[in-house]
Amino acid sequence: MRIAIIGAGAAGIMAAITAKRLNKNLQIDLFDANKSIGKKILASGNGRCNISNSNITSKNYIGENPDFINYALKEFDFKAFEKFCKSIGLLLDIKESGKVYPLSNEAKSVTNLLELALQELDVRDFLETFINDIEKEGEKFIIRTDEKEFKDYDKVLISNGLGAAPQLNASEIGLDFASKFGHSYNPTYPSLVGLKTENTYNGKLQGVKKECNVSLFINGNLEQEIFGDVLFTSYGVSGFAILDISQLAVLNLTSYQDVKIGINFFPKINRNDLADQIQALFKTVPNQKAVDILTGIISNKIAPVLLDICKIDLNTKASEINAKQIKAISYQLNQWKLKVIDSQGFGHAEASGGGVRTAEVDNKTYESKLVKGLYFAGEVLDIVGNRGGFNLQFAWASGYLVGKSFGKIK
Predict the structure, then answer these.
(1) Candidates 3.30.420.40, 3.40.50.2300, 1.10.8.50, 3.90.550.10; correct CATH number of 271-334?
(2) Buried (b) or exposed (e) across 276-315, using 16+ Cβ within 10 A?
(3) Is 287 helix (H, G, I), strand (E, B) or coil?
């Protein structure tokens, strides 16, 4: 039996290794547009390779039907992943947070060991090979590049992801292949990405970073709250809390909803107590400018912008600030609202949302319900995980089920 795998990322690699271990007689050809396998694996976790998470449920994913992945997460849970890693010589560093890294702390060690496993199993790789067309004639598949065609495949796996990180040759051509075979897909969008805001304060807050509580409002309704780093940028906001909240934010932007975020700079202090502390500060040094005194509790970049929002002149002395103005200052610090107008785009996104509709794919084999012998795995499907190794774990798990199906193990 001849099998073609389009995309040598986590899902494609896992499918190839699993299938060949179960059935040595399979001929598997692995195609990828890059010079080497696993480019997105290398980029995960800021280059440290956050390859999984030890605490995973379907609640860590969004999509049209996140429960679609329950079977995959059960069949290939974290223990199964850890066992697989040991089988290729890879030891893991499991953090208290649940994030999982290679014990070597080097992403390259992961792809090196995966590459050795593929070579040992005689999986043929065709790198720097961009597949632009797939056809099915009778029971066989044909795949094509601009210069060449590869014939007589019994099965094809589409696992070449979506548009996140185009600098790594990412594209949405997998959706073109899916559409050609009658599949539908949900609109794609950048996920785990910085957010562009309507007001950027002319870049005056650029570089300010603080741990904050971030609230997401969709059409005025509170939808999500996350605590973590917020980084102000020239285009809006970034940081871990923003990346996390971006998933629902950008998803709602794609359907033209009103999206706002609220930033609480002091989540451990309620608004009234914060107002009292500011008032006490002002009384301590009444003859100093309020803008200077505020730098005792917030960044010196935030203070002038804060007073401007509250319509207080920058030359105003602390003794001249009244109770109403102090309440306005504390309110702003407690709920700094920003209207989200866009994301930074796929070029800066860690993952892509949307994709092939899971209703059209078997959740136990990941074979198309429409075309026999056609399979999908990983990011090309309408499943996207939270930050922290969840997307790679879904890629490993879905690839495993495809490989199991290829190996004809029931």
Answers:
(1) 1.10.8.50
(2) ebbbebbeeeeeebbbebbeebbbebbbbbbbeebebeee
(3) coil
First to last CA, the chain: 17
199's CB contacts (< 8 A; 6+ apart) are 338, 339
For residue 384, give every residue at least 6 positions away whose Cβ sits within 8 Å of its Cβ, in sequence order, or none: 61, 62, 63, 191, 247, 351, 352, 353, 354, 391
The per-residue DSSP string of 140-169 comes to EEEEE-SS-EEEEESEEEE----SS-GGGT
- 221 confidence band (pLDDT: 50, 70, 90): very high
CATH architecture of 191-265+336-343: Beta Barrel (2.40)
- Cα within 13 Å of Cα(162), Cβ side: 29
Closest CA to 10 of 83, 61, 85: 85
**Reported CATH class of domain 2-189+349-406:** alpha beta
> What are the pLDDT digits (tens) for 80-113?
999 999 999 999 999 999 999 999 988 899 999 9
pTM summary value: 0.92
Q: Helices 271-284 and 323-334, interaxial angle, to 10°?
A: 130
Q: What is the pLDDT of residues 157-205, one digit of tens each?
A: 999 999 998 998 999 999 999 999 999 999 999 999 999 999 999 999 9
Please report, for the chain, the start and end positions of each structural domain, with discontinuous segments joined by +. Answer: 2-189+349-406, 191-265+336-343, 271-334
Report the relative pairing of strands 124-126 and 27-31 from DSSP bridges.
parallel
Nearest to 358 by CA among 335, 388, 381: 381
- 3-state DSSP call for residue 235? coil
